Amino acid sequence: MSAAELARLQFAATTAVHWLFVILTMGLVPMVAFMHTRAAYTRDPAKRAVRERMTRFWGQLYVINYAVGIVTGLVMEFQFGLSWSGLSKFAGNVFGAPLALETLIAFFAESTFLGMWIFGWGRLRRGIHVTLIWLTALTAYASGYWILIANGFLQHPVGYEVRDGVAHLTDFGALITNSMSLTALAHLSLGALTTGGVFVAGVSAWHFLRGTEETELFRGSLRIGVWVSMIASFFVVVVGEWQKPIIEDTQPMKAAVIEGSGVAEAQAQMVRQFGPGNYVPWQDWVHVSMNVMSVIGNTVSTITFIAVFLLWKDRLVRWRPVAYLMVALIPFPFIASIGGWVVREIGRQPWLVYGQLKVDDAVSHVSRASLIVSCTVFIAVFVTLAVVNWTLITRYARRGPDATQLGATEPLLQEKQAVPAF
After folding, report:
1. Which 8-state DSSP code applies to residue 312?
2. 117 lies in a domain?
3. For helices 215-250 and 252-259, what crossing angle results, to 10°?
4. String of b and e for 351-370 (b: at least 16 CB within 10 Å)?
5. Average pLDDT of 342-363?
6. What's the pLDDT tens digit per position in 105-147?
7. 3-class SS at 306?
8. CA–CA dist 91, 96 (Å, integer)
9. What is the rounded distance in angstroms from the CA atom of residue 312 to the CA atom of residue 365?
10. Between 151 and 409, whose confidence is greater?
11. In 3D, which of 2, 3, 4, 7 has the Cα closest to residue 379?
């Protein structure tokens, strides 16, 4: 493999693994915030206790995924300087601003709010504590927004001008309202909610299959997961269709490859516009990934639609084959999301900044041997982190609410407050 191919493999593999953390984080945190809000403002003591346990159980799984996932995000930032210095030289003045904002939001604001929420159980007033988890959710999506602003510039560069071979930001408003970013954010957000909803529904169904005694907790979780995934999966398909005319206007080659027609015409157009070269991406990768994403998206939408009706009289968990189906459905939204990422990124090849900077021109002047070492190390570390993450999530998900440690200080605090002072 060439140096450029090694650099691409490294970034593709690490980004794919990191994305698995991101999509579950963004999918779970709004549901945890909703659960906490409902628990905090429930007057009935028995129901409030069940809903608090529900919040802590799902909150702990979310925290595990966030804590391990944030490490992979930090590592990814270094790759721009390590392997893609050409991108920094050409587009650093534009590309760097949204990345810096994302870092400030994700690694400072979001982490701070989440930390205060984690250690605030039994220590903060109800309204403040609930506000913290909603702020965590808000900053999670704000982080996703800035990442997509940066990626949107690569897909459809706007709001800049080139001086002396370097891109300079001239219109911040155009940058932050890029159509390639905003529609992608809607698609990403709905895909994340689908993933989180299917995860919550699948884990809840598994506990029913095991004969759990926490029936109220997991019945409520199952309803939330099924409803969220049903609504989100329907609209994720709709928003996916909205992106087609935007892609046709901004990336005609990608549109031609997706449609499976007009590739030769698009190639001729690109040659006239940018000079000689091969502007056709890996068509098989784009076709397969697009089909995988579409089939899974429509399948999940159909199954969750049916599942909503089966919630009546607990038919969803009493009919064991359907409950097993909900469990088996858990990994499929993750696969679909990776397919969407492949279509978005490989579909614009050979460009790194569309129409301005090619991938081969952006690779750092690093030896092939160095890239082999870094590629091997990065992929090994990321795969290890992914295995650790899912091992922990699986372990705590299987153990159920009794193994939840999140908020464990509250009972101790109440006991201390109950002891009279002498």
Report:
1. G
2. yes
3. 120
4. bbbbebbbbeebbbeeeeee
5. 92
6. 877 899 999 999 999 998 999 999 999 999 999 999 999 999 9
7. helix
8. 8
9. 62
10. 151
11. 7
Residue 147 covered by a domain:
yes
Q: How many CA atoms lie within 13 A of 249 on its CB side?
A: 10
Identify whether 417 is part of a domain: no
The answer on pLDDT for 251 being more than 80 is yes
422 falls within a domain: no
CA separation for the pair 297, 233 (Å, rounded): 7
Q: What is the pLDDT of residues 33-42, one digit of tens each?
A: 999 999 999 9
The answer to whether residues 38 and 52 touch, using CB atoms and an 8 Å cutoff, is no
Region class of 44: left (phi > 0), else alpha (psi between -120 and 50), else beta: beta
Tokens of residue 45, six digits: 């003591």
Nearest Cα residue to 327 out of 212, 202, 221? 202
Burial of 96 (0-12, 13-18, 19+ CB in 10 A): middle
Please tell me the pTM assigned to this model: 0.92
d(CA 12, CA 18): 10
User: For residue 274, how many other CB atoms are within 10 A of its CB?
Assistant: 14
- Please report the DSSP string for 104-169 in residue order: HIIIIIIHHHHHHHHTTTTTS-HHHHHHHHHHHHHHHHHHHHHHHHHHHHHHS--SEEEETTEEEE
CA distance 227 to 305: 8
CA atoms of 412 and 414, how far apart (whole Å): 5
Q: Can you say how many angstroms the Cα of residue 350 is from the centroid of all Cα atoms in its chain?
A: 25
CB 57 within 8 A of CB 222: no
User: Across residues 233-250, what is the average pLDDT?
Assistant: 92
Return the structure tokens found at 353. 């900044």
Report the number of distinct structural domains present in the chain. Answer: 1
Query: Both tokens of residue 240?
Result: 């996916």
Distance separating alpha carbons of residues 117 and 114, to the nearest angstrom: 5
Q: Which helix (H) or strand (E) holds 357?
A: strand 357-358
Give me the pLDDT at residue 409, please: 55
Is 421 within 8 Å of 53 (Cβ atoms)? no
Name the residue range of residue 213's domain. Answer: 3-409
382 and 13 Cβ atoms separated by less than 8 Å: yes
Coil vs helix vs strand at 348: coil
Contact 308, 230 (CB under 8 A): yes
